[in-house]
Fold this sequence. Notes:
This protein is mostly beta strands. The protein has one domain. Helix content is about 0%, strand content about 55%. The protein is built from no helices and 15 strands. A four-stranded mixed β-sheet has the order 1-3-4-2, with no helix packed on it. Strands 5-6-7-8 form a four-stranded antiparallel β-sheet, with no helix packed on it. A four-stranded antiparallel β-sheet has the order 9-10-11-12, with no helix packed on it. It is globular and about 50 Å long.
Amino acid sequence: MIATFAPGLPGTGSQPVHFHTGQPTPWREGCVIRFQLADGSARFGNLQRGHGYSTKIVEWLQANALIIFVEGATYFVRESSLEEWRFLDTLGIDCTVTPSGELALVTTCTDVVALNPDGSQRWRRELAIGGVIIESIDDGVVRGTLCMDPPEGWFSFSLRLDSGEDA
């Protein structure tokens, strides 16, 4: 599946899939994504925006899934079925897939969230108030920086990959 941002919903074709943050708004156009499916057909998604700034698509090959950020709203989308999506957060920033591909680590303005390949949450750890950046994942340890006192208060952190506890 290939996903790209589109300028708007098409006027014809199948109904778009409506992705929302818990309060469906199917009659208002949000961020539109065109999904090019493996069989050559295309579907559109209408995604509700979040409360952040990050807008990107991260491919998680091992899970056959995408992690989509729309102004912070963060969605897990299965390649096999667009209707089987999960909303994760309204303040998402980025996603790092572990070297083994077993987990994806989503960072938000405050947390690191470890996702299993089915999109379920393995663990969630609140760390910051102004952002979390993952810099490396080695030997079962996640290392990065977190902001506790914007704009200058950035500090290092280390977490165990298996549990999210301090390393």
